[in-house]
Amino acid sequence: MYGNDFPAPDDASGGGLLGEVEAAEAALREAAARARRFGAPTPDADLDAYFADVIEADQKIEPRDWMPEAYRRTLIRQIAQHAHSEIIGMQPEGNWISRAPSLKRKAILLAKVQDEAGHGLYLYAAAETLGISRDELVDLLLSGRQKYSSIFNYPTLTWADVGVIGWLVDGAAIVNQVPLCRCSYGPYARAMIRVCKEESFHQRQGYEILHVLAHGTAEQKAMAQDAVDRWWYPSLAMFGPPDGDSTHSAQSMAWKIKRFSNDELRQRFVDMCVQQAEVLGLTLPDEDLRWNDERGAYDYTQPDYDELMQVIKGNGPCNRQRMEHRRRAHTDGAWVREAAAAYAAKREQQKEKVAA
Ligand code: FAQ
């Protein structure tokens, strides 16, 4: 039943995004096979030039390789922000687990929210390969020194919001993350391949929820439309500030961490959503949305970037609530961490005893 009785989002866009993930995975294998050509740099090598050559050749930088300090710091910032987003991102949908309209919906939503926790863990593990510990990263989030995505500071007011998060928020996440499967840093690229494959299912489940609502009663359709109206612009803002105001894009693209600019990805997302909204029978809330033959893309109204900056600074509708919840969960989970550490120490002792 699910996803097969109407065109699913990735079918609607020609199956292109998942195909790109497959291609990135194949490229990763190829790069690994070619890696020997470079070997380790000689003791007197110019390390900056060596690093530039590896990037130029589209090889992957691995944790053991030399890398410029600024590259390492940029990756920690981006991967950590991404990991925190997955963890905080469990809250808006988690809010509906106990109120899902059927047992089946509840089971699906539970699995999806658990997947987000898994994504957070892959990403924390990828960040740890850069020489920072998970405890430090969690501390940076809880003390407000690292960010998470603006989108998770908006409330989920109705069940239709769960559908829209799947369709638009996971959809924007996929458009942003598929190119990250080709990121120059190996552990991040590999984590992204796995994450994108799972995200594509997340997007389908949201799309299916909306499809059912949009083809249900007039009240259900109105609820779906209202959710699309509230989430459209915050979803566009997920891609970050416009290119002219993006502080990190140029350097991150030169290092092949980012492969496309914020505006390029935003445009790609808009172009994809127009067709999908038509299939759903819902309207995107933008009167100026129209095809531009010359550009070969849709013209659209930009999101409110002042609002984005306010949300990033901590002044969005739910910032305080999200952080309070996260801090409380961290404190409440202290006994689990202590028990796990005690168990690990006990096993270590037992191993030593057997070895003695
Ligand atoms: N929110 O120079 P740029 C998900 C900050 S998907 C908050 O353009 P950059 C799945 C940026 O950090 C969401 N902050 O920066 C899911 C920088 O601040 P800084 C997570 C934002 O890094 C679905 C400043 O503005 N995905 O979780 C945002 O080159 C459903 C200047 O910006 C990722 O993190 C924003 N929207 O590009 C989970 C993807 N935009 O650090 C659960 C990986 C910008 O200088 C449920 N990240 N900023 O103080 C990226 O691709 C990039 O980091 C961008 C920003 C595109 C987000």
From TrEMBL:
It holds the Pfam family PaaA_PaaC. GO terms for molecular function: phenylacetyl-CoA 1,2-epoxidase activity. It comes from the Bacteria. InterPro entries: Aromatic_CoA_ox/epox (IPR052703), Ferritin-like (IPR012347), Ferritin-like_SF (IPR009078), PaaA (IPR011881), PaaA_PaaC (IPR007814). GO terms for cellular component: cytosol. GO terms for biological process: phenylacetate catabolic process. It comes from Micromonospora mirobrigensis. The lineage of its organism: Bacteria, Bacillati, Actinomycetota, Actinomycetes, Micromonosporales. NCBIfam families: PA_CoA_Oxy1. This is Ring-1,2-phenylacetyl-CoA epoxidase subunit PaaA.
